[in-house]
Known about the structure:
Elements: H1 2-17, H2 29-59, H3 67-85, H4 91-100, H5 110-123, H6 130-147, H7 152-171, H8 174-183, H9 197-215, H10 235-266, H11 271-288, H12 299-305, H13 310-329, H14 337-354, H15 360-376, H16 379-390, H17 395-407
Helix pairs in contact: 2-5, 2-6, 2-7, 2-9, 3-5, 3-11, 5-6, 6-7, 7-8, 7-9, 8-9, 8-16, 10-13, 10-14, 10-15, 10-17, 11-13, 13-14, 14-15, 15-16, 15-17, 16-17
Amino acid sequence: MDFKRKRLAVALRNQINYPLQFNPFVFSKLFLLWVAVGIVGGVIASFYWTVLEELLHYLSHFQGLTVIPLMTVAGLLAGLVIHFLGDPGEMDLIVNNIRFKGGRLEPKNNPSMILSSWLCIASGGSAGPEAPLVQVVGSTGTWIAKKLKLRGEDLRSLSIAGMASAFTALFGAPLGGSLFALEIQHHKHISEYYQALIPALVASCSGYAIFIFITHIGIGPTWVFPMYATPALNDFFYAMLYALAGTAAGWIFIFTVRKSRSLFEAVKLPIYVRMAIGGLLIGTIAYFVPLSRYFSHNELNVLLQEEFTLQFLLLLVAAKILAIAFTVTSGWRGGFIIPLFFLGATVGLVVHNLFPGQNLPLIMVSCMAAINACVTRTPISTAILLATMTGFHQFVPIIFASLTGFFLAPKTPLINAQLGVKE
């Protein structure tokens, strides 16, 4: 007890003797570092997105049969980039490094990640830019921390802040992006990561402000959803029912990805050959079902604006599942969050075709929430992201659907690092 009193007396004496060092606010110098990481992340995301849009515009002119050779060559070139510049790894590696390597994300393979992901995404792969940007901006946060000689949780917080700012720049939801950067690392000891929530949120806000300032992208909903009718008392119950369809699609997707991964791993081929084969398969699917091409950021609006038959929607569900699976297992770079939202929306339209007269926006958003929560195990951030990106502001039904997908997910996650076991 005397020792504690002496320590308190020394602390008070120091504050009196050095009043300029006394800060009465929560604000600290680390706040400026989080802001700086967010700003850097916003600049990187803006540059990445601007170049990607130009490439998408140019390569979108390849239609019909030309899609197949285009995507085969794109896969080959991206594979050669990875072969010569280094393998940047995937989401499993990011999660493991955050958990077991003190939050260190190595920036040395960022050129490989940027170039290969540009080729993969712009040519029409069914994976989006969120995963590459998370790696690039997160590792930039690590680099800044190392330059400032930060260690421990301070270093980890800057890496996670970079990840969060990358998520937010693309999804336009600072809180949702921050939570996603934490939830994607889910395992039974997830609580240890929530101490990084404030750093992630600060970086997300500053990064998003820079991103929209440079790119001039609006801050409204990403997709134009039908107007949601007056909320009913039992909407949360219906959301859980609709979520069962999205969860079932999530199970099918996980099963397909695992089978596809085992097939590619069984055949020992150089990365560039494997990616060329992946491009051939994805390109063939895109030729027969063009709406399955790309990571579905714009294609989801097409799905919302036009009417499709039940037969086509079922075909699109199957094609998109295969396209995403071949993309992520053959070595093509990109993330599958937005493609999963597209897949969930398609499943929602199938449900609406089978049971017409039901609440279409509620069905679609419920299926989107359930499939993403089932596959990525991110129920809270998924609900927030969807509420922001769709303009569906009745948050309660979305969270019920998201939790349904989460708790009915397979026991073994698709992202192996979420098990919490060092690989």
